[in-house]
Amino acid sequence: MTARKVIVADDHPLFREALSLALGQALGDVLVVQAGDMDELQQVTNTHDSADLVLLDLHMPGVQGFSALVYLRTHHPELPVCVVSANNNGMVIQRALDHGAAAFIHKSATVDEIRVALETVLAGDIWQPAGFDGNGKGSAVDELAVAERLGELTPQQFRVLMMLADGLLNKQIAYELGISEATVKAHMTAIFRKLEVSNRTQAVLLLNQLAVDSPDQTATGFQSAGGVA
Known about the structure:
Strand order of the largest sheet: 2-1-3-4-5
Distance between the termini: 29 Å
Radius of gyration: 18 Å
Oligomer: single chain
Strand content: 5-15%
Number of helices: 10
Largest sheet: 5 strands, parallel
CATH class: Alpha Beta
Number of domains: 1
Order of helices and strands: EHEHEHEHEHHHHHH
CATH architecture: 3-Layer(aba) Sandwich
Number of strands: 5
CATH superfamily: Response regulator
């Protein structure tokens, strides 16, 4: 039987290793490819385009809110994305599912829960955590419209926008990407056009609609016990 190939995207090396061990227990023969930030995630999804699924943390360097999930669903629609998060807020779970997540797995999930979730996703279905009824408030229409516009960006334009959101100046973005300031300005023009905004401030405010609530905001959450982290 061919080994499953799973991309694990999380900025904490110890958790990536723990999750890799859990994947081995849950799926048996599995090849794990790791990514610690958005740049690495873009690289590995391009290199390993035959991967079976992605396990994605919502909080990584180079990511703003649900932007990484939106990026993956747009540029790799054939690749199921399972969000793995310490956030148990019901509204966050619903928003992740609205943006195309195939599963939402809490970081305290047991190996058995992970196995059931992954088998469900690999069978082509959507998995929701126990105790989540899906009847709560999800993504607003405006938020989904922002996600659709964000999906129109090329991978390089996406990187530029994330750096812009981090407060980098054009010359800093140019240095980080190894391109000219003129090229950065050209990317900015295209980004503003696709996002239907006219300046950096408006672009950042628009992107803020994809922000994820703090993991400790659990008023509308559910309870999950025992697990890998």
